[in-house]
Amino acid sequence: MPVNRSRRTVLGTRTAALPLAISALILTASNAAAEPVDYGKGGGAGEKGGSDKTGIYAAASIQYAGAVTKDGSTGNVTSSDVNWTPPPCWYAPYLGAKDFKEKMSKSIERQPNTPGMTGTAASGLGETQRHYEDGYGWTDTPGYKDYNVEKDGEGMFWAGVENPNEPDALKRNSCSDLPFWVANGEAPPPQYEEAISPEILAALAYQHMQLPDTKVTLAPEANTKVNLPTWAWLDKAVFDEVQATAAINAPGLNIQATTTAKPVSLKLEPGTEDAETYPASGECAINADGSIGEPYAKGKADQTPPCGITYLRSSGNGTFKLQATITWEINWTGTGGAGGDLPNGTFGNDQDITVQEIQAINR
What single string gives the DSSP state of each residue in 238-262? Predict the structure, then answer.
């Protein structure tokens, strides 16, 4: 009986509630390199797909390289778009036909003996079995004969993968459709919008990107004077564009994406309202040579710096927290010529500044 996509979702959700744990097929991408484990957990910075203890081919993992965190955690980039978020989950290659049959059929066989397996749960289990064994399908989702074993080696079943860095459990588990078949070299069915793609890989590379520290050079350095302009700058050699790459390799699928972050401006926040910034906005633009601001040179004490601060009161016995934040323009390129822009990212550091109560000074 053909039904629409909501039917597929209902069936998948119903089945996920069973001890069968299609939830076990909703893979959790691990945070760090690890030995392959049952259910093919994928996604660490150094993890590789392989065989689990049963000899079943595990899901391909996402490999990260470049300017990324080494433990698989979220990087230090803050998106300038508050509405942009990394993907909470995605669909990716899981198992070949024979391996999927071995794992799935054994799970289904165990379920009738589970206490409470009646009514809706039992019906859902029966429909799942029919779906993979007898060709039972619905609109835009065909069924399979004997788990597609006649096509073993010609494709893989894909399953949902959770993003372990997504704090919202509902979002993390939202890729809950039943595992589906994708032939080698073919695109996943269009209804699976969350299927792994260069664009999703770019977003994941963005999520894991680690930008360099932003410590500006100051003159005077950590100690300055009230009403004395403090020059601030960053040499091009101190910071440059950085790249982060995410890739996935599986039978019939080899895609990657690289995000490139290019610094475009420096924002200075003095740590007190009793200060003036140069420019007045506190935004120091990048120069033609890739540097920001201008180094202080002897004889410029009375000049206004193109990038800097004048403190109007003393910091007393303490310090002010000068925050220097770089805005990075981020874009991506990926397999097949794909590419585009991602939201600008920001990252900054605090620097302690001591401001002394001296009105004038010879330099």
Answer: T---EEEEEEEEETTEEEEEEEEEE
Q: Output the pLDDT for position 122.
A: 63
99 CB-side CA count, 13 A:
25
The span from the CA of 345 to the CA of 205, in Å, is 13
- The torsion angles phi and psi of 361, rounded to 5 degrees, stand at -155, 140
pLDDT tens-digit readout, 160-219: 999 999 999 999 999 999 999 999 999 999 999 999 999 999 999 999 999 988 788 999
β-pairing, 180-183 vs 223-225, is unpaired
Q: Print the SS3 string covering 128-168.
A: HHHHHHECCCECCECCCEHHHHHHCCCEEEEEEEECCCCCC
Tell me the per-residue pLDDT of 313-345, one tens digit each, with 9 for 90 and over. 999 999 999 999 999 999 999 999 999 999 999
In Å, how far from its chain's centre is CA 49? 20
Among positive and negative, which fits the CA dihedral 297, 301, 306, 307? positive
* Cross-strand pairs, 34: none
Q: Which of 335, 188, 247 is nearest to 48 (CA)?
A: 247
Q: In this predicted model, what pLDDT tens digit does every residue of 35-73 receive, in sequence order?
A: 222 222 223 343 333 344 433 444 678 999 999 999 889
27-28 and 155-162 as β-strands: parallel, antiparallel, unpaired?
A: parallel
Mean pLDDT of the region 121-137: 84
Question: Residue ranges of the alpha helices (H) in the chain?
Answer: 5-16, 22-25, 97-110, 119-133, 169-172, 198-208
121: nearest Cα among 26, 6, 17: 17
Q: What is the pLDDT of residues 247-267, one digit of tens each?
A: 999 888 999 999 999 988 999
B/e letters for 203-218, b = 16+ CB within 10 Å, e = fewer, are: bbbbbbbbbbebebeb
DSSP state string for 22-44: HHHHSEE--SS-----TT-----
